[in-house]
Amino acid sequence: MLILNELGVAFASRVLGPLPTALFLGAQALMQFSGFFAIYLSAHAREPFVFMGVSSCLLIGALVFVFGGRYGPTAAAAVFLAVVGLYVVPMSIAIWSRRRAEWQRA
Question: Residue 11's pLDDT is what?
Answer without folding.
Answer: 79
